[in-house]
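We modelled the chain as a single entity of 152 amino acids. Its sequence is:
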Amino acid sequence: MQLDPTDTKLLRVLQEDATLSNKELAIRLHKSIAAIHERVKKLKSAGYIKKTVAILDRHKIGLGLISFSQVFLKAHTFEVLNEFEHEVAKFPEVMECYQMAGSYDFMLRIATKDMDAYHMFLRHKLAVLPHVNTVQTYFVLSETKSETAYPI
């Protein structure tokens, strides 16, 4: 599916506020409600829209500590990499997991209540995975920008 300017504008608007009704979207984009409905349906079926979510205030739900952990594995076989990805994806504390090129193997974004909760996560979940060699963690002091919308 090739995106046209209307699709791109629709995706921009939905990234900012996915709660807008088809009627509200139609007004903003100067299209009919039926046309907007069909476009959203096509964008979803083509995989441009993966899911619609609510973005929560992490402080209000008790997750005040964000950290980024660089994970170094003991080996780099296909099986080891897959096993690590499979296991780390099960941890609710891990918000994002990226395999990296460079000096470390994976970068994790981790959300916990506080330093004690992070310590428990590290000691009882992450560090005990069979192929983890080293974990180096950086703690967020302040958040200047946190964006969920991609620039399209």
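As a brief sanity check on the tokenised model: The chain has two domains: 5-45, 65-139. The mean pLDDT is 97.
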